[in-house]
Amino acid sequence: MTWTDIVFWQIVLGGMLRLAAPIFLAALGEMITERAGTLNLGIDGIMTAGAFAAVVFAHMAGWQAGLLGAAAVGACYGALLAVSVIRLGANQIVIGIAISLIGAGLTSYLFQLWQPSGQMAIFVPLTPTWKVPFLSDIPFVGPILFRQNLMTYATFVALVVGIFVLAKTRIGIVLKAVGDDPAGAEMRGVDTALVRYVALTLGGALMGLAGAAITLGVLGAFNDGLTNGRGYVALAVVIIGRWSVPGAFAGALLFSFFESLGLRAQSGMSFVPTELFSILPYAMTLLALALTARAKIAPRSL
Amino acid sequence: MLVSLKDVDKRFGSISALSGAAIDLERGRIRAIVGENGAGKSTLAKIIAGIVPRDTGEFVLDGAAVGPWSRRQAIAAGIGFVPQALSFVSTLSIVDNHLLAGRGLRLDRAGALSRLQEAAADMDVSLDLTSPVERLSLAGRQLGEIVSAVTAGARILLLDEPTSALGPVEIDRLVRTIRRLAAAGTSVALVTHRIAEVMEGADSLTVLRGGKVILDGTTAGLDTNEVARLMVGDRDRGRATRAAATSEWRRLKVSGLMLRDEDQLILDGISLEVRQGEILAVAGVAGVSQPALAEALAGLRAVNGGRVEIDAIDVTGDPDGSTCLGLAFIPENRADGIVADLTIFENASLFEMGGKAFRRFPGMRDRSAEHDHGKRIIADFDVRPPDPDAIAGGLSGGNQQKLLVGRELARAPGVVVAHGPTQGLDLAAAATIRAALAKAAAAGAAVVVISADLDELLELGHRMIVITNGRIVAEFDLARPVDMTLLGQAMTGLNGMEIAP
């Protein structure tokens, strides 16, 4: 398979959508959090915890339980951050970093207890792949878009629901008001603390699901450090996407395209060191960040 | 009786804002709440609106006693509130701000837009309802808040200094709207310091002084001078005096200033000269041109063409340069000139900290010199509380303004640009500030006063220009009696021709 082969690009683009799911879900969670004027720097840790919880619960009761477990664990971390920052007045940056470290460290410890090293790795089945009838038979586009894992379809749904809720319901302006001018929002009868609790908790749940999208959508098993810093990529994607839902999706696709390309190209171009391909998505994200960072559109109370 | 407050006490730290205050609001009646800055009028309105909790006292709504009271509960009870500092979220449009105060998840932008348009049309004002409110003028925002409160169908409407940014035409429309709402059964409370408005619009009157109710009665048969005397108490009201400007030294020279915002020409070739010792009064219906001119003169806004020169040095778009050349700038919005988290004395010496007069060693602040400077401004401008260590954000609006003006004029400026310097202030504070501006001119400064208050401009200025649609449409020499008909025509844009002084 070479660069010029159409199947090569079909696989790369299909892989891009699959790999975009964790980045997009995490970025969506962070975007909601930041739109409410708060910051969750614990994304990577929460994704790790969600990825692990997904495997454990899926092993016990199937992938549905895995998704629920991942969302619940993520929501707990989000709520923990919310209580520390809003109720107890802690510094959100410090607590966010702490959660990032706890998420990774505690998960690693629990993983050791559950599956001591040296044992056979426990694999869980991936979320089901669904071929959309007829649509998946469209040449080229069909297999890319309509022969996907459930997590990928869930990403599409999250994209559409996210756009709709922010543009067409009152939630959108409430979030913007709280993020831009909490004092003004309070004057107009908005309970800013409540909005932030909800945003942080929901954001955490989405980050947990983002972890599940790695284990249940791609890998089928858990291993330490499996996020590869994707949480921080999601943080960058929120900025690249200018705090908008479609923007976050585009940012996620940018990263996952180069990730997918790297995975495929390694086999075809053995003369290039594989490390170079592993760097590519991160380098591209950094470049995009540098090019878009000038826009002053961040929520003002952030 | 819709609302009845009795024996209400409220303290902010060591300062008593209200003691034993009482007020009744009735269906279909307009009540004015008047008093000096710091008399407790805004606090009283905020307590009813659920923004400030009362310390003690009785609050009865619809015959039932009210416990702890939040803004959300007040909104649910139909209490609309337009605060003096305005409550709109600046990044949202008027429509979205209006919907923000609503309930539920539905977002009916089209419906809200048409209801707001209808209310605006009833008030005879035209508003940009869909742009972020930060792009609107202060007057536009103020009218927008009033329109939004009216559209929300408030049973009780509290307006805190609703006319502070409005011109005479808009005030007239507002008074008519309030009357119409009252006739339809709304209870209106109008917090104001303009006695003329009160006599014209209100049915009953509450006069506050030092947190106590001095008078509670109907406006019928009340004498304006009597109310003014009650508000101020027996105090000597300083009066600004005008010394004729004779110097030929043109300290401020502006030529061909152009400013474009999308398709709109905000400043369309403004040229003017202000001589040493002269006060130039700038009049016009409140709009976008006045704030733009003020900021362009101070170098704070980039212009599309033209020059601003101070003492023959080009300072166009150069705020540092103009400050170095002795420009004092009093912005329309005092939050732009006062750092709310700093103390009075720190605000007083803000631009000169570590400067020659405020240091013992290079690079080291001299706090005691800063302190003395703060105390001087407090004494000269009667800033209350007279404590240089008080946090500026805790002062009432009027006292913040006195501090701001005091700081700017204490630098012995060469050019003064003051935009709405006495907006929202009581008579005594306004008189103090006008006298200080006149004194700065007498000391050799070229002064530009931009204001919506025509009486203020006529009292202060040597010369007056009228700006309409970004152009100077008329100029008057104030040493001679002004033809008020011509002035009115120029203000309303009826007369486009240049009028010779």
How would you explain this protein's 3D organization?
Chain A: The chain crosses the membrane at residues 6-29, 41-61, 67-86, 93-111, 150-167, 197-220, 232-258, 279-297. Chain A: It comes from Kumtagia ephedrae. The complex is a heterodimer of chains A (302) and B (501). Chain A is mainly α. Chain A has a single domain (3-128, 147-292), classed as Orthogonal Bundle (ABC transporter involved in vitamin B12 uptake, BtuC). Helices cover 73% and strands 2% of the residues of chain A. In chain A, strands 1-2 form a two-stranded antiparallel ribbon. Chain A is globular, with a radius of gyration of 19 Å. The mean pLDDT of chain A is 90. By secondary structure, chain B is α/β, with parallel strands linked by helices. Chain B folds into two domains: 3-232, Rossmann fold (3-Layer(aba) Sandwich); 250-491, 3-Layer(aba) Sandwich (Rossmann fold). Helices cover 32% and strands 25% of the residues of chain B. Chain B is built from 16 helices and 20 strands. Chain B has helices at residues 41-49, 71-76, 94-100, 109-122, 138-151, 168-183, 195-201, 224-232, 289-297, 319-324, 344-348, 367-381, 397-409, 427-442, 454-460, 484-491; strands at 3-12, 15-25, 30-35, 56-61, 64-65, 79-82, 156-160, 187-192, 204-209, 212-218, 250-261, 264-275, 279-283, 305-310, 313-314, 327-330, 415-419, 446-450, 463-468, 471-477. In chain B, the strands form four sheets. A six-stranded mixed beta sheet of chain B has the order 6-7-8-3-9-10, sandwiched between helices. In chain B, a hairpin with a 2-residue loop joins β14 (305-310) and β15 (313-314). Chains A and B meet through α7 and α8 of A and α2 and α3 of B.
